[in-house]
Amino acid sequence: MTTVAAYAAPAAKAPLERTTIERRAVGESDVLIDIKFAGICHSDIHQAREGWGTAMFPMVPGHEIAGVVSEVGSAVTGFKVGDRVGVGCMVDSCRTCDNCLAGLQQYCTGGGPVWTYNAVGKDGERTYGGYAEKIVVDAGYVVRIPDGLALDVAAPLLCAGITTYSPLKHWNAGPGKKVAVVGLGGLGHMGVKIAHALGAEVTVLSQSLRKKDDGLRLGADDYRATSDPTTFEELKGTFDIILNTVSAPLDFAAYLSLLRTDGAMVNVGIPEEPVRILLSSFFGHRRSVSSSGIGGIPETQEMLDFCAEHGLGAEIELISADRINEAYDRVVSSDVRYRFVIDTATI
Ligand SMILES: [Zn+2]
Ligand SMILES: [Zn+2]
């Protein structure tokens, strides 16, 4: 066991504060990672504030982890001391169900994945996330960060990157396809970069035109305000894919009308409340409404390699750990361009 410094929420809705946690001894298939940077994902806030239901406290959030391997277990062959690595939303799964065997560990049907924090591992111990100095993770749930990617801008790719890459790939974003990204936040800005790099024609649908210059710079071909009703008239029947990154409820009928026949609206922002959708808004054109959760370990590695090849990192605001609570409030009010990343040397 190793005692490491961390930032934790002691109770639901309580401010995060500096504390210490225990990390398990490095097992034969584990790696010890010196965490360098940890992104702040909106889902950290949903969980720390119990927006998604009862959570476990104290909670050390953080599932956008980038760091350097400092020790490896005796059976680890894929990593060595000094390797640049990342850890995302999960640190284990059953490894034997069809989905795990297919590399879709995020959809593990053998009890579900073990989430990086706010969960209990197979050893019965609580998991604690990336707002900490170090983490011990089974090597099968660690990915390599290519040399071309700086660790600070790579950290958010471990959740925001894969959460947008996986559905864009699954629904075949690419040349000749029109993709709308709803919301230009932490997820949305990566959705724009990745969809553009995949060769799709990209439109941002945002409440206002406030971030239009950013959106076009990040790779969007068009940028429309959803507060303007003419947007919905002009873009009717346009898109093959709508990637919705907004976690507030939307007027689904209005957005579904923007899809072409057989188009899909994929939701990766998860509202805290149930949503209402009229079936009549999509049966007419065989449209579909779907959702997608992060991506498996092989696809997460593929995403990192793709991002390195195309020079895609997240747009970040680097903060010291004592600014986490302030950052949470700013994420909730959409006041970040586009991801806060904690310099864990300041914990
Ligand atoms: Zn996340
Ligand atoms: Zn499984």
| Ions, cofactors and other bound molecules | zinc ion
H and E string:
EEEHEEEHEEEHHEHEHEHEHEEHEHE
Shape: globular
Secondary structure tally: strands: 17
What fraction of the residues are assigned to beta strands by DSSP?
Answer: 25-35%
Flag low-confidence runs. none
CATH superfamily annotation of the largest domain: Medium-chain alcohol dehydrogenases, catalytic domain
Structure description:
- The chain contains 10 helices and 17 strands.
- With 347 residues, the protein is an alpha/beta fold.
- It folds into 2 domains: 2-159 and 295-346, Medium-chain alcohol dehydrogenases, catalytic domain (Quinone Oxidoreductase, Chain A, domain 1); 161-291, NAD(P)-binding Rossmann-like Domain (Rossmann fold, 3-Layer(aba) Sandwich).
- Strands 3, 4, 5, 8, 9, 16 and 17 form a 7-stranded mixed sheet that branches. Strands 12-11-10-13-14-15 form a 6-stranded parallel sheet, covered by helices on one side. A two-stranded antiparallel ribbon has the order 1-2.
- A hairpin with an 8-residue loop joins strand 1 and strand 2.
- Helix 4 packs across helix 5 and helix 4 crosses helix 9.
- The structure holds zinc ion (ZN) (2 copies).
